[in-house]
What does this fold into?
Amino acid sequence: MPSNKSVSEEPITQFVNCRILKDHQLQREDLWVREGKILNPEKLFFDEEGYADHQVDCESKILAPGFIDVQINGGYGVDFSQGCDVRGGVALVSKRLLEHGVTSFCPTLVTSPPHIYHKVLPEMEVHDGGAEGAGVLGVHLEGPFISREKRGAHPEHCLRSFQQGSLTDLLEVYGSLDNVSIVTLAPELPGSPTVIQELVKMGVTVSLGHSVADLSQAEQAVQQGATFITHLFNAMLPFHHRDPGIVGLLTSDQLPPNCTVFYGMIADGIHTNPAALRIAHRAHPSGTNTLCGSIATMDMCVRHFRKASGCSVEAALEAASLHPAQLLGISQHKGTLDYGSDADFVLLDDSLHVKATYIGGEEVWRK
It folds into this structure.
């Protein structure tokens, strides 16, 4: 059908024969894309009298927002904390993530000495994704301001406390926060309330993890602006009926009004028992769970989370797309298929295996 280019000369692509995840439901409708954005077809038809230049037959598969991984320490032989060929390592991981439906991510550094941060962080610049790989949304700094008791695999000799209780402590260690989107810290460390407040003012998401904090300390951290829990259940005090610790945030009544606490879970069938996944999902089912993988890929975690928790397909997909976007404050243009959003999406079969990945409306990977 001929197209009318009175408004834009850019081609329009129409994705047909698909089920789109929109408004928390899978809906049978077409998806329209131009200049890397999702179009409102009514405006296209009635205001521009425009039509599609190209059609893509999705063969009745699911079209969901691209997955967003907020915690990935490396992969495919690359460890982001090693500081070797940083740009090359990020490029390799970015490219390989496409086959798992990940369209953007936060490369994550575990506890390291200052010279590693000073070398690596300037090399991990925020950028959009494309055919070369998934986009970088900013770095996730997991440590070194964490608990010695719950440090896990983090090297003890590199752990730090807050000496001045301000951003000065962070800048001395990290060098800069320019490319940083998330900082995981232990809220029981003296000086953490002020640090949390200052990070939030800078637009950095604060996450609680690798911690022996009790519930009161965790609640105070949320009151100061923390909004995330790094790998719930792992590297924190176990749930206890007298003091549930950080886990108690899932049902706390001491949080600020309209406050949403997100939590990551290692939904790989190894780090977190399926029963724990069900407990967390049922205790806090209002759409606030995000997913993080270990050596498991994001699409594997989505499938396992759905099976283990008993949640809907829609909820499992949103836990890997919408909720990470909400956590990072970017849901106005990522994590949804709303009109005007970035056209980053993934094509999946009914068993949630990835068949194709698109960034900016362009196919960047196909099985």
User: Anything to note?
Assistant: Residues 281 and 309 are 7 Å apart (CA to CA).
